[in-house]
Amino acid sequence: MDSAKIVTLFLMISFFKAVASRNCEDGWEHQNGRCYYFSRFSTNFVASMYFCKRFEGALVEIEGPNEYETVVSLARARNFPDFYIGLTDIFSEGNWMQASSYKSQTYFRWSPGEPNNKRNQDCVQVYRANSKMDDVWCTENLHFVCEKGS
């Protein structure tokens, strides 16, 4: 095989690898087979759910420690403020469910003393300061993270 064919083959392989790894729209970040969007504005829990759904996603629903670390690391790299995740106990106090899929949540990384349900807090934020979960009022205006498959 001559050098021109090798260069052409290399360029084609590089192009297809780049296309295959970029399965997320502009503004979304691809990690571990998922696409994540970090909001540039803050809003309440319901509006953040609607925003994510509008772009064919959902508020990030943490499936386990690996996904939690991925989201927290991406947030930390952006110096991202406190943010909503798709977790609520609004339907049954103390029964934490994923907001879009309605699956029971099995993984938590609560801040010390949380959840405390102070005056009926039913939604969850991740604190920027310690990267841990805290229950908050769903009416608070916070940034948020959306996710969808790539």
Largest sheet: 8 strands, mixed
Low-confidence spans: 5-21
Provide the succession of SSEs. HEEHEHEEEEE
Secondary structure class reads alpha+beta
- First-to-last CA distance: 36 Å
Report the mean per-residue pLDDT as an integer.
89
Share of helix, binned:
25-40%
Q: How many structural domains can be distinguished in the coordinates? A: 1
User: What's the overall geometry?
Assistant: globular
SS summary, helix count: 3
Structure description:
The chain is of the alpha+beta class and 150 residues long. It has one domain: Roll (Mannose-Binding Protein A, Chain A), CATH 3.10.100. The protein is built from three helices and eight strands; from the N terminus they run H-E-E-H-E-H-E-E-E-E-E. Strands 1, 2, 3, 4, 5, 6, 7 and 8 form an eight-stranded mixed β-sheet that branches. Strand 1 and strand 2 form a beta hairpin. It is globular, with a radius of gyration of 19 Å.
Fold blueprint:
Elements: H1 3-21, E1 29-31, E2 34-38, H2 45-54, E3 58-59, H3 65-77, E4 83-88, E5 97-98, E6 123-126, E7 133-136, E8 143-149
Parallel strand pairs: 4-8
Antiparallel strand pairs: 1-2, 2-8, 3-8, 4-5, 4-6, 6-7
Characterize this entry briefly:
This protein is of the alpha+beta class and 150 residues long.
List keywords for this structure.
150 residues; alpha+beta; Mannose-Binding Protein A, Chain A; eight-stranded mixed beta sheet; 28% helix; globular
